[in-house]
């Protein structure tokens, strides 16, 4: 089916789909208006290729069908791999790290761990300090500190200086203590650990990774999605493996937000297109006038020709915007699927993967991911069970609609209707 035929069929199909979705909404948890805040992971801490050449820089060129096909195939293979592992986990369960076999072993491990600790770091978590970013300071100390440093949240009394305030206590001779105020960035934390505390094994790679991650989170909170994705890309390029799963989850969140932004523009583009398509009854009258009044036929023909050129432009814009929307969704799916492998016990990874798959109309697979998220975090059950029910109803509708419309037309109509 050509570009015009696809768009026209999608316009008609979207009216049917929109009516259905109004009563049985297939909106995922990521699109609820009261759920948008979840897009900023670790929001309370103000902290924590892909698009390779940025689709915004394509200068109007449409994403190639080969690229779309490759990404769809990659996402589908990831889904298939998950389904096979999911069935295996149902039979065997997910094994946790085995615990020591005896109380003596626990006591021995505890003694050995305690003997390695050289410093205790206390980060003030008073209301005043938290307002100045103490949560991020605590998170940074925990991320950068080696095993020889224990980090504790605390309420430090008699501190009049500006927070966040930090107290560092040496646990062995010469038992010195250091108190530092206004510890509000990663470089200060790194300097305290390496210079003041003389800790030798602080990872520079971890520091750089954390700085880029926090920068990406700051951009994400401001809805600066291209900048957020670029920061997460740079953080991933540091190859600091302990943060890879979280970074992929954050980047998937940014791509989902980008997809929704493209979807909003896509809907407006389709609305503009619908205004250029003449009503069949009016078009019939024009042809009748042209036949009965030959002198007017040329003027009417020129008008129809101008309208057709405008429609062609809107058709291309619709196709381009839909390509951008699908690209962002496919990247979100890839990142979130990979994050479930790296962080299998983290409910948010399964939740985000379910969101991305639901947007891609992988409704059955999405429901499985939501089920897994609920297993890991039962508090999600009240929110996700109604979503899963809507997905099941939507799947029934899709199965029936496939007999009437092509897959491309149906996909475009569903994406426009939301």
From TrEMBL:
Residue spans crossing the bilayer: none
Signal peptide: 1-19
NAD recorded as keyword: no
GO terms for cellular component: membrane; TRC complex
Keyword presence, Translocase: no
GO molecular function: molecular adaptor activity
UniProt keyword terms in alphabetical order: Repeat, Signal, TPR repeat
Any Pfam family the entry gives: TPR_8
PANTHER family: LD24721P (PTHR45831)
Protein name: Uncharacterized protein
